[in-house]
Amino acid sequence: CLAIGFAFAAWRAEIRLGDHLAAEQEGRDVEIVGVVAGLPQEFAGGSRFEFDVEGAEAGAVVPGRIMLSWYQGRRDSERTERLVVRPGERWRLTVRLKRPHGNANPHGFDYEAWLLERNIRATGTISSKAGVRRVDEFVASPGYALERVRARIRDRFLTVLPEAPYLGVLVALAVGDQRAIPRDQWQIFNRTGVTHLVSISGLHVTMIAALSAALVSFLWRRSGQLMLFLPAQKVAVFAGWIAAFAYALLAGFEVPAQRTLYMLSVVALALWSGRNIGASRTLLWALLVVLIVDPFSVLATGFWLSFGAVAVLFFVGTARIGESRGWRAVLARWGAAQWAVTIGSVPLLLLFFQQFSLVSPFANALAIPFVSFLVTPLALLFAVLPWPPLLQVDHWLLAQLMKLLEWLAGYPVWQQPAPPLWASLLAVSGVVWLLLPRGFPSRWIGLVLVLPAMLWIAPRPDAGQAWID
Questions:
Q1: Which of 3, 242, 278, 435 is the most buried (most CB within 10 A)?
Q2: How far is CA 193 from CA 187, 203, 252, 335, 438, in A?
Q3: What is the pTM (predicted TM-score) of this model?
Q4: What is the DSSP letter of 64?
């Protein structure tokens, strides 16, 4: 199985790496025709968008998907109207391309890996001197139609609250577009450990599926004839899966949404067939489907954090099956889940981000139900029913939460150099040991195994010296 998995990933990598820009094509003007493939992102000097190349001038070999930046400087002020692009439009452009390039600082953001994961094999700019022309208003395709719907929903948000400080968060929760969130707000989310709440994560997809399933089950049980035709449980499972699928598509089908959808699909099939395949096997089936569909997802930090968090929840939850019920038991399980996710994410957060929030359990305990059951449903309701008061109330609720998060962000954050791989793996085993069921002897040993990653001191040059690689 290991050999098959390696061979499959290597084969897919060979195909993707083979679609590259030749060195002699760099830095020269090339005329291409293609379709705007994603949501355009506006910035101070213009816009940036993904572009599916359909054809290029004779003799030019251009990758199938590229990232283009269209700069709007002072010289092009009279052509502002032509800079507006929408998903699904076919354009004829003159571009200047280069192969993916980024800094390779250890433990920093790897721009080349990010482009590879998104299958973007070249970046470039549109020449302002050359003529540009919109060939078609819309190219019929399910993917382009979905991107056009996401763009219209985003425009609807921007029209109602154009100057709202937290509008970017609401747009991210509705259509998965996080690039409108300011840097200072990202710092607040990072310092409080609630970054996963401002993106369409598995938690949000599961919540939407659960709410849809509960509503359909409630309505279906009102009719005895419908109950005889098909059990309410099966209908509810199907309705929940449809809602999760629609929300995952609206989110751009990112890895966290994919993982949750595949897990829900496995659970739905098991319930429809009358089988119980177990929590761990459900997670493994979802992992298998994700890696078959997109083996490059392992390059994304969210892939590891997403599957790691769910694995920890399954590990802790299965150990508590059979506990008493009631509101006290519910609160106890909620607290145990928060504790487990916080402890379980420490090794990965130190490895990927070199920090973790000390107030994360408290911040998540308040923010998760608030965002999941109030902010996100209202944002999605406005996306379906564009009534401005819905969005205004939603933004006011989010602003109250942000006041609390800003206060919590003032508390210290554990920061240190990234630990080596052996210390991170040792910390993962320590977390597993530490989260074993109550009554297991010597659980404190798990804490000892986590300490090397938390207390790692990276080698550094003496005062007055420098190391340069």
A1: 435
A2: 10, 15, 23, 16, 27
A3: 0.80
A4: S
